[in-house]
Amino acid sequence: MGAELMTEVSGRGALANIDGTVIKRAMAAVSTMEVRSLGLQVRNGKGPVGPRRQPPQHFMVRDGGDAALAPEASARHGFSFSDDILLIPTHGTTHMDALCHVWQDGRMYGDLPADLVTSRGAKRLGIEEAGPVVTRVLIVDAVPEGRPWLDAAEPVSLDLVRHRLDAAGLVPERGDALFLRTGWVEAWAAGVQDQLGWGGLDVDAIDWVLESGFPIIGADNIGVEMSPASDPACAVPLHVRLMRDHGVYFVELLDLAGFAGAAVAGMLTLAPLNIVGATASPLAPVVVF
Amino acid sequence: MGAELMTEVSGRGALANIDGTVIKRAMAAVSTMEVRSLGLQVRNGKGPVGPRRQPPQHFMVRDGGDAALAPEASARHGFSFSDDILLIPTHGTTHMDALCHVWQDGRMYGDLPADLVTSRGAKRLGIEEAGPVVTRVLIVDAVPEGRPWLDAAEPVSLDLVRHRLDAAGLVPERGDALFLRTGWVEAWAAGVQDQLGWGGLDVDAIDWVLESGFPIIGADNIGVEMSPASDPACAVPLHVRLMRDHGVYFVELLDLAGFAGAAVAGMLTLAPLNIVGATASPLAPVVVF
Amino acid sequence: MGAELMTEVSGRGALANIDGTVIKRAMAAVSTMEVRSLGLQVRNGKGPVGPRRQPPQHFMVRDGGDAALAPEASARHGFSFSDDILLIPTHGTTHMDALCHVWQDGRMYGDLPADLVTSRGAKRLGIEEAGPVVTRVLIVDAVPEGRPWLDAAEPVSLDLVRHRLDAAGLVPERGDALFLRTGWVEAWAAGVQDQLGWGGLDVDAIDWVLESGFPIIGADNIGVEMSPASDPACAVPLHVRLMRDHGVYFVELLDLAGFAGAAVAGMLTLAPLNIVGATASPLAPVVVF
Amino acid sequence: MGAELMTEVSGRGALANIDGTVIKRAMAAVSTMEVRSLGLQVRNGKGPVGPRRQPPQHFMVRDGGDAALAPEASARHGFSFSDDILLIPTHGTTHMDALCHVWQDGRMYGDLPADLVTSRGAKRLGIEEAGPVVTRVLIVDAVPEGRPWLDAAEPVSLDLVRHRLDAAGLVPERGDALFLRTGWVEAWAAGVQDQLGWGGLDVDAIDWVLESGFPIIGADNIGVEMSPASDPACAVPLHVRLMRDHGVYFVELLDLAGFAGAAVAGMLTLAPLNIVGATASPLAPVVVF
């Protein structure tokens, strides 16, 4: 295909594959002008969140009750306002991982030492190094027809994904993002699956992602790759082989409930908050179809 | 101009002015494929933030130190990772106000009662109702040539803004966003101004914004409009007349340091987090030039 | 008995019953000089907490890993230190309720309107009005012999409590605190009961508490009184009749695991944090036996 | 005096010096039955706090406004309640340091390695190892007569302290706590001093504290010892020599405003929250005079 991911080490990891040509392609994918957010709702005290993480908390610090009860303190000449605060794990809703999120044998992407990540945050590879992204995204349902979701630890069938792309006339090109629907968010909401397991990509996808030239992969589950992993010696082989080794970015906990059966392309914008030294940023991916 | 803002009440406020035609215009504004974030850095314990708000706090909950000191607890087969949590006022960095943020005489946009905003958040007009936005943005420096920033409570000269737009051959059209550089963030960083005052739009801009058809206005200060206001009876007349009365969205604390002297157009994407019932969302506006 | 609680409205509620005579009695109850905390462990992400509350979160902001990995940033002349932050619901571990915590028909203790409690906290009856307490405490196991805990919604048998007090030669006097072991914390830890139900005092205890002269009642459950309540028209009749009507203070989520079979007296110190306007304070009650 | 601190390493550090004899002495110091809290007010967004720490934040999550505006959601049969959450640096108000708070050359008290302190908290010497304390406290004003407070970096005069103790007929005995008023909290509230400097104990106090047998020292400033220190090679020599080497506990940010001119004794109760692995606990020290 000639589309293989360029994986020389760069400041932005594999995002260096996204150049003006790719952005033009993204814009060319726009047809109906429909604008969609793929960000899950952020609700006080609600998940889904990964193991050992707490759900977001949303605190109102000024509201209509204050204005009603204490107008002298809360309003001037009839004007008043509301205000609030958010506590959120950076991986606690739809988010994009920073390259400082993982390491193997003490080394992060680009052979940078994990020692750069301290209580003050990451001195290198924090989410602020990703910057904003505009690219073409391919959104493909990885759930076989007739089923609501993949089972926990069920691998995505690459054949099914390729077949659906083919059927839609979509050919991956270097720089595209790939978002896969596994149905896990729906399974979680239905109480059928939990934060300890989900379907997703297996190790057979590693080479295919590189060959297809995807600098960004995403899914509607906690890790993009399936959990538990098929490799007993590595809990997250795709995080190691793709994120750590090649700087591929992972977008997790996507809201893809509306894409059952789909294989579609659109213009994707990822706008991570510029949190200095953070291991991820919550975000609402925007797609224009 | 025939471009006046349509201000019938709608679910998304003035964002209803942004249709497919506007999105096409946004894409047509793209030329160099340069992608920029206008989001300020989010730093632990650092501002700028508005009065009575605390700066963001960023807590690491797992880092390279843990892996180094307690590998048995923090790594398996050599793999480990970092994780973190963010506490952030929704208005505590670059953000987009929700329409539930303000009211006058107990009424929000669309005559909805402020009583809908309780400790559980806003039942209506929360930031989740805004949804994602793609439109054309006009970014104009409102600081006169030769000066670093507007003074506190210095009104933006509409003549200067119009002159710079004209000189750049830019004509506002209904649905465009308008972002104005006041220099306040730089003045704040230099310790010359503080969170109690800034330059910005004055009441003379109210009609002009409506006539120009801007459903979104933004600036690199805390309120878009100047502070203190010129109107002794109303602290934030533009919030009342534009946001409350007409559903115009405000984007505040923009990073426009790179736009001194500029009058430029680009494709803007706003991707507020889908925080149910929130009065705003932190975000990183993305512009493609 | 002549010991009935004086319940004229006072600034400190029923704590006005604790005078120098009571403190002397508290000291007279000391014999072995054993000092015990009745505060539960506060653990990151762990309960028990009541419905709709999140567990405490404990964030390290500086630790031994930082010193090891970045000594130049974290140590001077070999010295370094650790630091941390706590996020805790005020009712999210062992705590003492403030009188502003409850109201009936819009009125709190002393006929004060609930309107005094806004997003800025309580203007009256916040925990800062309780102040510190030193008194005699009677700690009695309310679990019948041979059982590990009361069932959910199982009322404490006042006969059992009186019997155990009698057998121990303990006579309640005005100003004493009463702490009852229900076993709920152990039942919760064992996974047998949850935050939706527990054994505790039933409505028959209301008069007895007043007649016995207890200005403070406490238990090792979420509400001192049992849940669900026996009264279908009132979820928390003791909160209404004792806290709201008479200013009796409630201490909840006590650690009484060590008091199976006990009926003992000691000198109790309650030291609520001086949180202005708060509805409760976490605390570690200290008893000297 | 024969009162020297026993400083063999123990699980509770120097608190092992407090035995039944000391507790009896504490009770013997009680005369008027006056009960006082030495805890500062905890206020949303207010200090004083040390450098790089944020002030506490207090969030209401349910209040009188909710009940008024949405009775159907907030009240049942006329009953309703308020609830709230506290975010507080463990050193961010009146607090007691844990022995894991400091180390020199990688070693904490008892030669334990600082490596035990990770993002999950301290595996050893967390505040949960201190437990509750009841002892006699000597509260002495260290501010010379006629002055409102010590200057920043002004050492406490031990002669003045000894003189005032003598004049009051108070003789330190092994196991007593020593609390010194420096006036810093008042100087801070007056805007005269800030979090970068305060008066306190200097290195000449090290031997005196050990000889006097104080396992606990406290003050109304951020560090008990003065800041900046007189020793250019060590920012906090008393933390190293007393806390690190001998397990002496420090209680900081005391509210001693009412003790100008005083040298008094009372019964002190310290009730740290049982926060597992924490470097300190906020608390409200209680003294009975």
Automatic annotation (TrEMBL), chains A, B, C, D:
Gene3D superfamilies reported in the protein's UniProt record: Putative cyclase
**N-terminal signal peptide:** none
Q: Which residues form a coiled coil?
A: none
A GO BP term, please? L-tryptophan catabolic process to kynurenine
GO function term, MF aspect, one = arylformamidase activity
**What is the protein name for this chain?**
Cyclase
Source species:
Acrocarpospora pleiomorpha
